Every structure is written in C-alpha cells, then in structure tokens.
C-alpha cells in the first residue's frame, strides 16, 4: 500500500518531554532505591524488558527503580541536541525529535532499544558508515556509579576515564540517568535503491567504495546496509534523504520489507519511505525473525493485529519459550536434536568481509545475514589523528569495518553435545582469526585472557576500581560470559 505524508512540524514541548524537575525526581527515586539494596546484594536494574539474548540477573530480588527515567528531558532544535533519560527508548526519542525535523545520528533498528542501552552496549545502523556508533554522538552523560554516586562524565575533565570506558561496559560501571546527544536534520523521505550483487567480493568492494566516496554511480548515499541471502544473491540498500513529496511504501501490514529488496534484474529496484518508516523498517518483522512465529504466512498475517507486528511482541514470545523450553520440547517430540541459539553481531575489517561470509555460508546453516558498514566518526585518516579512544571496543580510526548480523539457531550435533555453544565458539574463533570483534549482547564463550585482550581488560579494571570499588555491580566478564 502506498501513502503520501507531510513533514512533521511543531516546536512546543511534546508528550514525551518530561522537563528538568520531573527528571530530578526520577533520579532521586533511583538513588533511594540503590541505598535500599543491602550491601551484600548485587545491584541490578528493575527492568521488565531487555534486548539482551544472554542470561539476565536474578529478577526475583529488588532492583533499581528506573520508573521515572524513560523519557526525553528536552530537545534543543537550535543547538541540535537532546537531553534524554537513560531508559528512554529510541521509539520515544525519535517521536520527540522528529517533531523538530531532527533525529539521533544513529538510530538502532528496534524500537525498544534504549539510548542508555545503545551507548553502554553499543548500537549500529545504516548511518554508521558516516556517523559511527551511538556513543560517538554523546556529549556528556550522568551515571549512577557502582559506588552509588551520580557523576557527570565528559570527554575531558575529572570523569573522562568513565566517559571513554562507558561504551561496551553493559552496566558494569554504572547506569546512565541522563545523556546529552547530538542530532541531525532530516527531510521527510528516504529514496532507496536495492542493488543486487552475484558474488561476495563484489559486495565487499562496493561497500568499500561507497564508504570512501559517499556516493554510488553519481548519486549521494546517506544510508547504507545490506542483506546476503546466498553467496550468489546479495544486496546493498542505498538510501538518499529527500524532501520531494510523493507516494511511499508501507511495510507495517501485509508487505514484508526484506522481501521487497529481492529482484532478478541488473537495474536496482527503487522504493521510497517516510523517514519515520525507514528508521523502523526492520522492527515490524524483527528483520526476518518473525517467520519463526508464522507471521510471514499471509493466512496468519492477515489476522495478526498490526499493533502486534513489532519486535517487543516477539521478545515476549521468546521469553515464554525460554521460560517453558517450548522449542526444544517440540523438537524432541519430533525426534529431532535440540537446537543451539546462534544470535550474534560481529565486526570484521572490510577487507576480510567476503572471507568471513564465504566461511559462514559454507559452515553455518543460517540465512539471511545482515550487513552494516561502519567507521569511527572521529579520525578518518589511517594515522588515527584526532580520534577518541574507546578502550572496551577498540576499532582502528580511519578504517572501515562491516557488521554482520545473524539471528537463528542450528541443530546440536551429537559430537557437539558435550560442548556448550559449539557453533558459537567456532564463530568466535573465526572472527578473531579475521581481526574482528563481536558484540556482547548474546552468549559468549571466551576464556578470561582472550576476553581481556579483546575488550580493554587493563583499562576496564582500573576504571572499575574507581567507580565500583566494592564490586556492587557484576564485572564485564562475569556478566558477558559466565552468566549463561
């Protein structure tokens, strides 16, 4: 279905903006809840939802009260900045900023990801080839540390060490209460080109050229990501911001976005979306993972309420499966082996992308795969001049990386039955061989020495001792690897 929309307008405070006084009250409740937790008890968030695929801390014990920290404090359309509470979702944040014709520099793909979560746990999207990662647009952050103090961390000054260690710390140094971020202006529409490639090396070469030039065949590229279906069917989606009015597509109902990408021709398939719908194009079907729930079947989708076609609903279904072991029970009834969850995002240097994709498609029975190029925002030259350091997820300044996302499961082979996470371990080894990293939102199996070498062990330990001297919060290795 096509529809035509107008650009959002309005500069008065919106329904998602709470103001400084309400924010201060929320912080007071948070600090009071911290002080109420016995000193011998590990501190955790009292958060009902999560975008993590690894085990969460015990939710049966009281946690920090974050109930007053889920909105936007204010938007400054002149300075193009926003002050945002730590538990504010990107859905809420975008609703507030789009009223001013602005958006965050990087908007992760799922509506319920929080700004605090994207900064402390890393995030990525199709602007990352030009805007880096979410934490790179962070100007300052208020953090409730493990010591129970709220401090303001900036790139320079007293708490600069915390500012630089906060990304990829996953709440093990503290929790953000307020973040000030940069915004960018956007017109109301995005024009898309879906370009097909018949081999993986060509995809790699095209991404490399687009990141360097910011264009493809003479047309500007503002957004860049891709999908690999097989080693002979892969696509890059090139988005261009535009204010030209006209019809746009709608993938919030019967039509499925990732299927619209596919075509057989040499000429790119074109499409148009509102900027709002572009930002959330993947959320309706959780990329392609909604097929596990049957909602891509037209007979089911027709009767599935639109409001339930979103990632937050699928998360609830996943939680039920984990609680009652539904999927494995069904597999056993069918006489099939149980399945190992393989839900990961990894980054490899762009020159190693085709090699990783070939290996993965040969070895791991999962498709499609998502591609998203990225570069650190500061220090575009290979000598790294002027680049900020992010010790817990070190990437080379001036160098292009490609995020590869894959989210599914594989049968557990009998030979692997005694080895927990056998397939995930193989992927970790291959990523390390190719000088890459992987995100820590899902299961990890590194030994301590390798983990510390990959994720800033010495720097992290030093900052941990300063801001969580009594270890009220789990350390990063315990949270990311040992709590499975």
Oligomer: single chain
Number of DSSP E strands:
18
Instruction: Bin the strand percentage.
Output: 15-25%
User: Which structural class should the secondary elements be placed in?
Assistant: alpha+beta
Number of helices: 16
Q: Give the termini separation.
A: 44 Å
Low-confidence stretches: 1-10, 379-385
Give the integer mean of the pLDDT values.
89
Characterization of the model:
The protein is of the alpha+beta class and 484 residues long. Among the domains are: 20-185, Uridine Diphospho-n-acetylenolpyruvylglucosamine Reductase, domain 3, CATH 3.30.465.10; 325-445, Alpha-Beta Plaits (2-Layer Sandwich), CATH 3.30.70. Helix content is 29%, strand content 22%. It has 16 helices and 18 strands. It has helices spanning 19-36, 90-98, 115-121, 128-131, 160-165, 200-213, 257-260, 275-279, 298-301, 311-324, 326-333, 353-363, 422-433, 448-454, 457-467, 476-482; strands spanning 2-3, 72-76, 81-85, 102-104, 138-145, 150-153, 174-185, 189-197, 215-216, 219-220, 223-230, 233-242, 248-249, 269-274, 339-349, 369-374, 401-411, 437-438. The strands form four sheets. Strands 14-8-12-11-16-17-15-18 form an eight-stranded antiparallel β-sheet. Strands 2, 3, 4, 5, 6 and 7 form a six-stranded antiparallel β-sheet that branches. A hairpin with a 4-residue loop joins strand 2 and strand 3 (81-85). Helix 6 packs antiparallel against helix 12. The longest helix is centred in the N-terminal third of the chain and has 18 residues, at 19-36.
